[in-house]
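queue> pop job 88
queue> type: inverse folding (structure -> sequence)
queue> payload:
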């Protein structure tokens, strides 16, 4: 605030408001996993907004969303590398005994807790699907 960074302040207030709202709604203290899930949800919202604003030709609004996206990503845990994600997928497939694409739900359930907030679950899903398909 003292540095006069109004955009940063406003983005942090949005994050704090979302955290407080979840605490009030669920009447419990948030765990680290809950906080990561909330930030991840806000990041997804920003990505969708950026796509929509660019599609509508509103670069000014897209730029503001990019700023918030970058700020939110600084509060996420260190992202895993492609190799670490691939190793986790192989391990989860072996641990669940999955052999066919119909077993994808079991594998994703095992991976979600371990990789949430540290990997793009869309990419993880594609890796699991490829692994089970062939």
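queue> result:
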């Amino acid at each position: 605030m003292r540095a006069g960074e109004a955009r940063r302040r406003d983005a942090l207030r949005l994050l704090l408001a979302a955290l407080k709202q979840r605490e009030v709604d669920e009447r419990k203290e948030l765990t680290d996993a809950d906080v990561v899930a909330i930030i991840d949800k806000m990041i997804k919202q920003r990505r969708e907004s950026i796509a929509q604003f660019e599609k509508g030709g509103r670069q000014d609004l897209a730029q503001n969303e990019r700023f918030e996206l970058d700020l939110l990503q600084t509060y996420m845990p260190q992202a895993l590398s492609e190799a670490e994600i691939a190793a986790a997928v192989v391990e989860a497939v072996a641990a669940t005994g999955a052999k066919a694409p119909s077993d994808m739900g079991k594998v994703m359930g095992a991976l979600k807790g371990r990789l949430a907030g540290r990997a793009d679950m869309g990419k993880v899903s594609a890796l699991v699907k490829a692994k089970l398909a062939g």
